[in-house]
Amino acid sequence: MKRTRAVGSGIYVIMLLAAAGTLMAEEEQPLSATVSVSYFSKYVWRGQNVNDTSVMQPSVSGSAYGFTGSIWANIDMTNQSQTAPDNAGEFSEIDYSLDYSRDIPGLKALGFSAGVIHYLFPNTSLKSTTEIYAGISLKAPLNPRFTWYGDVNSIEGNYLQMSLGHTVEHLVAWGSDYSMGLSLSGSVAWASAGYNRGYFGIDAGKFNDLTAGVTFPINLKHVTINPSLNVSTMLSESIGDATYERNNIWFGVGVSKSF
């Protein structure tokens, strides 16, 4: 496990050094920020049904020089959450993340990203934890991406995700400022024994979740509305039996504004 931490930390240091080089090499970089709030009929994370009832999820992020820092939160809307019962209107999770992404020099068809996520669980009995991650993506049909997440705190396990996606920016357009697009996504993941032991009490590496979603982003000039429909299943029967709900279907709608 110490070796896993060292490898992950090394990747993160390399990422920071690369970012510093880019910062020094480029005099000007655009600054951007996004704020959003979303409603979902369930909160499902990596196939895990965290809350089987309504939630609100606000977020804010800012980007510059290839870095993106963000704060994301989950607010339970009912008193029926599995992790925070009798907690309606309260935060049950707050995530802080820092990401660095760029194309691989000399290989513009390939991109990489690396970063860190710190998870806090206020108003619950869950322990906070931290993940570091690194990913590589290919600029090709379906935009394949492979990402490794390593928990270096409470769970001390690894989660490996392969994802695909396709986006049509202007499925329907009403003039230059109003349009509706289409975004399709899907992923499959494998998790190590440490990860599965920490989350499910299963001491074995297994394929974890299969997740898919469709979103119809609606651009209304100043804001974007994002209705979505999502499905997931736990591929392992034993892991599925250890969760609140093995198969999930949920919908959501979000509103976002970029600056």
Describe this structure in words.
The strands form two sheets. Strands 1, 4, 5, 6, 7, 8, 9, 10, 11, 12, 13, 14 and 15 form a 13-stranded antiparallel beta sheet that branches. The chain has a two-stranded antiparallel sheet with strand order 2-3. It is built from three helices and 15 strands. 14% of the residues lie in helices and 57% in strands. It is mainly beta. Strand 4 and strand 5 form a beta hairpin. The radius of gyration is 19 Å and the shape is globular. It has a single domain, classed as monomeric porin ompg (Porin). The N terminus is likely disordered. The N and C termini lie far apart (42 Å).
Give a brief outline of the structure.
This protein has 259 residues and is mainly β. It has helices spanning 2-25, 193-200, 237-241; strands at 32-40, 43-45, 48-51, 55-64, 67-76, 91-104, 107-120, 129-138, 145-151, 158-173, 178-191, 206-215, 218-220, 224-234, 247-258.
Tell me how many strands there are: 15
The topology string of helices and strands comes to HEEEEEEEEEEEHEEEHE
CATH topology: Porin
**What characterizes the major β-sheet?**
13 strands, antiparallel
Report the end-to-end length measured between terminal Cα atoms: 42 Å
Indicate how many domains the architecture comprises.
1
Radius of gyration: 19 Å
Return the CATH class. Answer: Mainly Beta
| CATH architecture field | Beta Barrel
Shape verdict: globular
Q: Would you tell me the overall average pLDDT? A: 89
Question: pLDDT under 50 segments (min length 5)?
Answer: 1-28
In the CATH hierarchy, what is the superfamily? monomeric porin ompg
Alpha-beta classification: mainly beta
Strand content: over 45%
Q: Work out the helicity level.
A: 10-25%
